[in-house]
Design goal:
This protein is α+β, with helices and mostly antiparallel strands and 139 residues long. It has helices at 2-26, 49-56, 77-81, 130-137, and strands spanning 66-69, 99-103, 106-116, 119-127. The protein has a domain at 64-139: Surface presentation of antigens (SPOA), CATH 2.30.330. The chain is elongated.
Length: 139
């Protein structure tokens, strides 16, 4: 008999919740009775450039991995084991071709190798458009 009472009270709770939901859906929206101002600002869809600038400030310090890819090749393990100091590995890229610049493994630009103060660098010559990046991801 106790099980039936518990089931009945559970059904009464569900019934009350459903009735409350139905009443709130049909009743006109009334302002909150607490008088507390809303903690969220209303979204208008019109963001100003200063809002965007403030939003991007949150991610400016996130580190990413920038990689410049000189070229690639496939090599058999037999040939790999024969490599020694001074060995030359031929890459698929041609001399003078732009190098790929990757951020976290995704191609975002191309550039040319430069030497500055005895250190290698890369001069960006072409930025990959967002549409082109998406097209390359789908391949």
């Amino acid at each position: 008999m106790t099980e039936t009472t518990q089931d009945d009270s559970a059904m009464d709770d569900w019934g009350a919740a459903m009735a409350e939901q139905a009443a709130s859906e049909t009743a006109p929206e009334a302002p909150a009775a607490t008088g507390n101002p809303s903690i969220f600002k209303e979204f208008t869809g019109n963001s100003t450039p200063t809002d965007t600038h403030n939003d991007i400030d949150f991610i400016l310090d996130i580190p990413v991995q920038l990689t410049v890819e000189l070229g690639r090749t496939k090599i058999a393990i037999k040939n790999l084991l024969q490599l020694a100091q001074g060995s030359v590995v031929e890459l698929a890229g041609m001399a003078g071709e732009p190098m790929d610049i990757l951020i976290n493994g995704f191609l975002i630009a191309q550039g040319e190798v430069v030497v500055v103060n005895d250190k290698f660098g890369i001069r960006v010559t072409d930025i990959i458009s967002p549409a082109e990046r998406i097209r390359k991801l789908n391949k």
